[in-house]
Structure formats: C-alpha cells, structure tokens
Write a structure and sequence with these properties.
Layout (H helix, E strand, L loop, with lengths): L3 E7 L3 H12 L4 E4 L8 H4 L20 H6 L9 H14 L6 E2 L4 E6 L4 E5 L4 E9 L21 E4 L14 E5 L3 H13 L2 E6 L6 E2 L7 H9 L1 H9 L19 H14 L15 H18 L3 H7 L13 E2 L2 H4 L5 E5 L5 E5 L2 E4 L4 E3 L2 E4 L8 H4 L3 E2 L6 H4 L18 E3 L12 H22 L1 E5 L1 H16 L30 H13 L5 E5 L5
Parallel strand pairs: 1-2, 1-6, 2-3, 4-17, 6-18, 7-16, 8-9, 8-16, 9-12, 10-11
Antiparallel strand pairs: 4-5, 5-6, 13-14, 14-15, 19-20
The protein binds 3-acetylpyridine adenine dinucleotide (N01).
The site of 3-acetylpyridine adenine dinucleotide has 27 residues, from α5.
C-alpha cells in the first residue's frame, strides 16, 4: 500500500483497532500509525503491578461483533492488564487488522495543506490522507512531576504509564510511590507484598471502594453471554455506558440504620457501582456527604493506627468528584509493618537526592526504586503532542492556548477533516470507554461515508464549537464535579494547563442522542464545503 490514503488513524488501542476495522469494511483506504511495537494502547503501556480495569470484564469489551462476544472468555470479574492486552491482540488477529497498521511509528507532526493531511513520523516517513482520525486515548501522556534532583537519583525510577515490559523486581528493596489516584491505589498493595519497605508519598487522600475482584465462574460467564442483547441496551441508555441504572433511593429520607445498611450492601458488592447505590450522589452535596461519610468511617474501621487513618481520610473534595479508584486491600496495606505513609501536603517533597526523597522539613526517605503514579496530561495532552496544524498553519497548541475546545469532542474548528475519538468535550473518561469509543467510531464512519458520497470536506463551525463549550461547562456546573480543585478532569494536575472542565458530564445517553440529531439534521454544526484541491 502506498503512503497516500483516504484515512490515517493514529493509535492502535480500543479506538484505533475498531476504526480501522469499521472503515476498511466501508471500503476506505485506511492505515493506522502506532508508536508502540504492538496493539493495545493504554493496555500496552500501563503494565505496572496491579494494573486492572475498573469496569467489569463482561462489558469492558467491544459490542460490535456478536461472534467476538460469544467466543472470548474472561477469567475474572475485572480484567487485568495482561488479559485485556491478549483480548486486543486477539481482536487484531481475528479481524486481520495488523496488515493495516505500522508499528513503532511515532507521529511528530500532522499538517493540513489545504487539500490533504501530511503526516510526518519520527522515523522520517511521510503519510498523506484526506481524513485524519486520532485514536490516541485520553490518558496516554504521562505526567512526571518536575521535582529538582530527579536526574541525579541513583536508584531506578519509573512512571506507571511507561512501565518496563520486563517488570521491576522490588523484592526486598526500598520502594517509594508518589501518587494515590486509581493507579497508585492499585499498585501500592502489590508492591508492598514484595518490597522490603514501601513508602507512600500522599498529597491528596482519596476515597476508594473495594473492587471485590474474583474469578468469573462458568455460570456467570454463560449468563452474561446469554444476556448480551439486554446488557447492551441498558448500556446505551445509561449515564455512564455501564450496564446498570442509578438507584432512585433518596438516602436523605432513610433512617440512619437503613442508610448505613444500604451503603454496607453496596460496599460488599464493591466496584464503581457504589456510586449508583443512591440517587443524586454527584448532584446534591448533602447526599454526597452521606456516601463520603460512610467511606470515611470504613477507612477508620480498616486502618489500625488512628493517626494513619486520619491522614488517609479525604476531606477536601466530595466523593466521586475525582475519579473514584477501586481497590484490593488498599487501606489494609497500611497495617503492614513494611509500609509507611508520608503526608506530602503537610511536608512537601523538596528534592530527590541520589539516595531518595528529601522533604521540605529536611526529613530523608532513602529509596532504591521510585514509582511515579502521578497520572497524565489528560484528554488534550495526547492531541497536543501530535504537532497538529490546521488551516493556514494554525497550530493546535495555539488554538487551545486558553483550553481545549471542540465540537461534540469530535472535531476542532480550524482543523478540516480531523476527527478526534473521545476528544475533550465528549463523555469519554466519565463512561465505560469501549462504549463511548464505539459510538464515536460509528458516528465518524457515517460522517465519512456522507463526505465521500458528496465529495465534501468538513470542520466544526466556530459558532457550534462555542455553543458546545458553553454546554460542556453548564453540564459540569450542574454537578459537584468541578468542586475537586486538583482534579485532572479540570487539567489542574498539570502545572500551567488552562483550567477547563474537559469531559462532557451531561451523560452518555443524552450525548449520543445529540450526536444522532446532528447527523440526522445534515451536520449543521459542521461547515461542509465542496472539496478544495491544491492547485
Ligand atoms: O492519576 P491521577 P492515575 N507530588 O491523576 C499525585 C484511570 N485509571 O494514574 O491529587 C505529589 O488520578 C496526585 O495528587 P493530587 C482513571 O480514570 C483507571 O492514578 O494531584 N503527588 C494523585 O494522587 C484514573 O482516574 C484505572 O494532589 C503528586 C496522583 O499523583 C486515571 O486513569 C487504573 C504530584 C495522580 O492521580 C488517572 O489515574 C488506573 C506531585 N508533584 C488509572 N503530582 C482502572 O481502570 C501528582 N501527584 C482501575
């Protein structure tokens, strides 16, 4: 295949694989460019100890193929990283996708020349295409804090999102973990089990719900397989793309003992569904406080040392306004003799020394291995680092200098024929990702079919984009989500990043209906122009 195509897709994770499959099926000349040497995206890179999905396996998977649904067997309630990667490798083989992907190919720039996209790679290759689709994930741009002295650290350090494929042997070693988000909370218990000593540097205490992971029995798996049609229907109609509905129980109307019993049942069942145990958790501060209080009480019940429990107890944001982690024995880990907790909000990290971490107070923590579970430059970061330039040389970095702005999270004004799967301004990270990805890919496939049939170029109008930005803000403001001041949803975790609430919080089903209405109305939010050709 030559390097001039209808469509180039950047990324070969869940989004890129399905895009290639779908567009190839429609007869487009499509090719994927992937920085890694294999498929998998997020699940290729995030190989840290304990990496596991927080959606359950029977619905954290594609829905586009009934055969695939029936033939793949998940082994656990929550799929681990290696199993998800095997699944995506199976998908790539089963649908013969690898022949349409160049691996170890990092895009360094992509510019629209008035006619086509011209894409340059680190290895010096050039690709051109009419339509460019980004499938780069929302959490793929690692955020390593700029702490003085890191370069001189004599031990080894790793960011969890770039974990070495050969693993890191921490047996008997002094290990430090910075960060207690979903990643840190998964990694800490596993690292603690083999480290000589584990020191956790916590800046913000986090709410976490037990996952209650377990092997998936043959009966459970068969039940899901028999029920997929109904499961998929619930997902499509839901707020988060999960196959369960939010309870309509008004927790404030319940007597204390009944409320506690209700939360106990949800805690025992475990998982993200805890959020859906009562209504209005993310809308009503009083309701939220009942859930927050319950979790705080669990932390104090679980952790033996009351002083440690106090440091682990969150008070600065309502439950679930930051993405709630789910865990296996996270709070229990602080009862181990080889684990210590350092409150770096009270005594910040001042410097990395050759021998470890020095705090502002001068206290030293000697370390052999330092793990940064410090998250990502989320949603906009993976797009900004592609070196995108739209009409008349407009750089995305310039267009987004005051924050990411898109129409429907699917395209950017000034960037013709560019489509962004699960981009900023779409529900993405607030939902079950494969569900959102498939909705985006199907919508983009329909639009590309329309553009091809009528020989059109498309780009969002500035007016539609501005209206969408207002709506994204209103949707967030109707919830408690913006109250978590340090949240990556707001870009607050990356120094200097403009504070814009990035994902669309109005709900998956509502969003899907708006996308469908846009298509049915002939794409009024897009300027559709007869194709311009370079002279
Ligand atoms: O990243 P995070 P993550 N000094 O940004 C701390 C998904 N995910 O990789 O809160 C000290 O949430 C930071 O502290 P603070 C999921 O969507 C899913 O854990 O900014 N600390 C925070 O504690 C998730 O939300 C799964 O004060 C510093 C932590 O690092 C998203 O990925 C598993 C610091 C970063 O937490 C990101 O999660 C894993 C500094 N300089 C991830 N800088 C599942 O499916 C940052 N921190 C289960």
């Amino acid at each position: 295949m030559g390097n001039d195509l209808d469509v180039v897709v950047i990324g070969a994770g869940f989004a890129g694989l399905y895009t290639i499959h779908r567009l190839r099926g429609l007869g487009f000349a499509v090719h994927g460019l992937e920085a890694a040497d294999g498929v998998g995206g997020t699940w290729y890179w995030n190989r840290y100890p304990g990496a596991r999905c927080d959606s359950e396996s029977y619905y954290y998977c594609y829905a586009f193929s009934r055969e695939l649904e029936q033939e793949w067997d998940w082994s656990e309630r929550y799929p681990g990283q290696a199993e998800i990667l095997s699944y995506l490798e199976h998908v790539a083989d089963r649908f013969d996708l690898r022949r349409s992907i160049s691996f170890s190919t990092t895009v360094v720039s992509a510019a629209h020349d008035g006619d086509r996209w011209v894409i340059d790679t680190e290895g010096g290759e050039r690709w051109t295409c009419r339509w460019l689709v980004t499938a780069v994930g929302c959490l793929s741009s690692a955020n390593v804090p700029d702490i003085p002295g890191l370069d001189g650290f004599a031990g080894e350090w790793h960011h969890t999102g770039q974990w070495p494929h050969e693993g890191v042997d921490v047996t008997g070693r002094r290990v430090g973990v910075v960060g207690t988000g979903s990643t840190g909370i998964q990694a800490i218990p596993v690292l603690a089990a083999s480290a000589g000593h584990l020191t956790v540097f916590q800046r913000t205490a986090n709410f976490s719900i037990p996952a209650r992971n377990a092997p998936l029995s043959a009966e459970e798996a068969a039940g899901y397989k028999a029920d997929y049609a109904a499961i998929r229907e619930v997902q499509q109609a839901s707020t988060n793309g999960h196959p369960f509905v939010v309870s309509d129980v008004d927790t404030l109307a319940l007597p204390d003992d009944e409320r506690r019993a209700l939360f106990e049942r949800a805690w025992e069942r475990g998982g993200l569904r805890f959020r859906a145990a009562v209504r209005d958790v993310l809308a009503d501060p009083e309701v939220n406080e009942t859930a927050s209080d319950f979790i705080r009480s669990k932390i104090h019940e679980t952790v033996d040392d009351p002083a440690v429990a106090a440091v682990l107890t969150p008070h600065d944001h309502p439950f679930a306004t930051k993405r709630p982690p789910i865990d296996t024995d996270y709070f229990e880990t602080y009862n181990r003799a080889n684990v210590s907790l350092v409150d770096v909000r009270a005594d910040p990290i001042a410097q990395i020394t050759p021998g470890g971490v020095r705090l502002a107070s001068g206290a030293e923590h000697p370390l052999d291995v330092l793990v940064f579970a410090t998250g990502f430059d989320a949603l906009s970061g993976p797009l900004l680092r592609l070196g995108l330039r739209g009409r008349d040389g407009l750089a995305l970095t310039e267009a987004w200098s005051e924050g990411a702005a898109t129409y429907l999270g699917l395209g950017v004004a000034g960037f013709p024929n560019l489509f962004t799967i699960t981009g900023p301004g779409s529900p993405s990270v607030l939902t079950n990702m494969p569900t959102s990805i498939e909705q985006h890919v199907d919508w983009i496939a329909d639009l590309l079919g329309h553009l091809r049939a009528h020989d059109l170029d498309a780009e969002p109008t500035p007016e539609a984009q501005a209206r969408w930005a207002d709506h994204v803000r209103e949707a967030a403001d109707a919830t408690l989500l913006p109250q978590a001041a340090s949240s990556w949803y707001l870009g607050a975790n990356v120094p200097g990043k403009p504070r814009v609430f990035l994902p669309y919080a109005g709900g998956f089903a509502r969003y899907r209906e708006m996308c469908d209405a846009e298509a049915q109305a002939g794409y009024p939010g897009f300027a559709l122009r007869a194709r311009r050709r370079a002279a």
